Sequence to fold (589 residues):
Amino acid sequence: MGASPAAPAMPYGAHLAAQAPTEADLLSQAGQAFADRILGVLASRADPGTASTIQGAGAANPRLAALQGQLVQQHMALWGTMLARDAGRQVQPVVHPDPGDRRFSGAEWQASTHFDYLRQAYLINARFLRDYVEALDLDPRTKGRLRFAARQLVDAMSPANFAATNPEALKLARETEGKSLTLGLKNLVEDVHKGRISTTDEAAFEVGRNLATTEGAVVFENELFQLIQYRPLTATVRKRPLLVFPPCINKYYVLDLQPENSFVRYAVEQGNTLFMVSWRNILPEQGGYTWDDYLRLGVIKAIEVVRELTRVDKPNLIGYCVGGTMLGAVLAILRARGEDWAESVTFFTALHDFSDAGEIGLFVDEPSVAVREAAIGKGGVMPGRELAAVFSALRANDLVWSYVVNNYLKGRPPVAFDLLHWNADSTNLPGPMYCWYVRNMYLENGLVVPNRLSMLGVPVDLSRVAYPTYVLAAREDHIVPWKSAYRTTQLMRGEMRFVLGASGHIAGVVNPAAKNRRSYWTSDARPLPADAQAWLAAAQEHHGSWWKDWDAWISRFSGGKVKAKKRLGSTRYKPIEPAPGRYVKQRVV
Fold:
């Protein structure tokens, strides 16, 4: 047989072009499989009706086909830039990280073609999945749940989270001859014993030593809370005292961290007589307390003590987060009883209308609530660590994965940060109280319906609450969406001032006036529009902290000035122990 004629030589790289359709098909199929897998995971955890809705959401959707084509084009472009780079040519990245994404900021990610490819391929896939979810025809709640699940997976699968695909961690391991990996394993073992990821140098802070140091005394206590009175820092004080109800889900000292960022100290420096509720960290023996107990033995009792101790019938009241929810309910109860116990009310990032409770609300449904009620609804403890894990998952890159990389892959200790020390100091709740709150607020949104809920035997109607009210929300709040906090201005009556702070649920509140950072928005439009977006369109931005705006507002309800008393407490309410007291020092074990 004669020899076959030689095939003509292909130009270099032409074989890649010839294979392109096959690669494109594979990429498209992989992207589709990736997205379908996410849909399947969520569908498997949903009720049958929701599952079928999710599984059928992608049928005959032209936007999804367009995204598939875009995915293929971006990956082919990425392959092209990598080949060009290997050939020594200068190329521009196909995709860049989002502003503020620091995971790939190290020079090591760009120094190697291999790691540059991993970084960009991950970003392309992540954005494809995000856009894929947004393109699905789903109801808002289902889409919200899918959006959350997709983000959790995307965040977890970042190449920065794995030692073999993180060039910064590999470089450090080489430079330290493996010591960084040894230290990382040590940090991992220690955190396993703790049952949580360390997010700060916990030895750097201690409540009562360099946190919660504003001078004062516990002047009352019962099974649920201690009441702290702070020592005046001015020669004269405003006649009407301030009483603060922080969230019982966390500890009060978020408002009294260090002197330079303490809202408590700032308020006292302005001449306020300040009282703070310090909720008890619930132990099994307190596991039977109910929502009504928190209102009667907590909120109402604290107001009674302050009124009696100061001989002022109408103090100024502040409620933060769930503390604000409880305060709103109590004011409605008192109004129904014909009682008038407040001069003004301030709400810090608090919900009363739970129709849009953010991502937390997306995962509160009848089956999950029923399971929790069966377990602890009649007695037991809702562990603070579980609540902390939920809050961390809302910002997983910042509060979970950044510390996995720092602590375990790089073997470094977390830096000392007072706010993260507080964040790790979680608080247990009694089961009956927690279950009632989740069902009646998050699941059924009963507080907005006049007289639907009865508390302490009284039908509750927020529309009867009529006080001068200052409502603070935070624009980037992932726990209390600012537009939901705004709805308080439409539920209650009286003079309303709404202020929108920058940042999130905590940093939006803890924004020290002395540092003059961030900004806030106000509007003098009266009456306040029903729509939050309409309010924002007419609002003015101010540089700095909202604290000064609030102080100017609260001074109008101060009742004038009186000489400051050096003695804390009274004949009946004698000081029990110095602030911050015992309750706040009880840690979850």
